[in-house]
Amino acid sequence: MTPFSSRKEALAWAKAIVSRSDVLYVDTETTGVRFDHDDVIDIGVVDCKGIVRMDQLVRPRMGVPSDSEAVHGISNRQLQTAPTLVDIWPDVSALLTGKLLISYNADFDQRMLAFAASQRMLTPIEPLGWDCAMEAYAAFNGQSSHHRAGFRWISLESAAMALDIDPPAHRAVADAMTCLEVVQELSRRF
Q1: What distance in Å separates the CA atoms of residue 133 and residue 139, rounded to the nearest whole number?
Q2: What is the residue range of 36's domain?
Q3: Is residue 2 a part of any domain in this protein?
Q4: How many domains does the chain have?
């Protein structure tokens, strides 16, 4: 997905997205933010009606650093008995394949899932595509970025609060649900 060029374009996108039935809202929590090193530890998937389709902790190949645990609250102890990505990949793949996936920072979630799968030689998921609610909210908000072309990215927590949505709990399923609520609220402002 390319960034939105205007507020109107972002709102029209949101209006179109909420009318589709083939959309899933996806979020991951990870051991860190390096695409070539860190691992997925939590996968949350919510459908277009707000029904939780997946809420799954995942045992990573490495430990969770304390700075990452401070963000999402997921400890190494909690992950000791969680299934591995290899164990759950058939379910993840079956759920996500053929769907339009929406994430708040889609590039991050897409790349983290792809890297984790490639490290385990798992077949990549084949969604219809990935769209980014963060890019849509950035265009809606309209503040220019000083670091890159386009609009300034706004955190999911800040976007939720600005739209009078309860802020997320920084777990995958909670963030996926908040992403859905942000898109729904943007669609109402079209």
Answers
A1: 10
A2: 7-188
A3: no
A4: 1
Q: Where are the alpha helices (DSSP H) in 7-79?
A: 7-18, 66-72, 76-79
Quick check: pTM over 0.85?
yes
> Do residues 54 and 91 lie in contact, with contact meaning Cβ atoms separated by under 8 Å?
yes
Whether 174 is in a domain gets the answer yes
- Name the amino acid, one letter, at 27: D
Phi, psi values for residue 117, rounded to 5°: -65, -45
pLDDT (tens digit per residue) in 114-152? 999 999 999 999 999 999 999 999 999 988 777 766 788
- Cα Rg of the chain, angstroms: 16
Distance CA 129, CA 17 (A): 13
Q: Counting Cβ atoms within 10 Å, is residue 100 exposed (0-12), middle (13-18) or buried (19+)?
A: middle
Pick the closest to residue 96 from 64, 36, 56, 150 (CA basis). Answer: 56
In a domain, 1, yes or no: no
> How many whole angstroms separate alpha carbon 21 and alpha carbon 69?
34
DSSP 49: T
Within 10 A of 136 (CB to CB), how many other CB atoms are there?
A: 29
CA distance 96 to 11: 25
| CATH classification at residue 68 | 3.30.420.10
Give percent above pLDDT 70 in the chain. Answer: 97
Q: Is 26 within the bounds of a domain?
A: yes
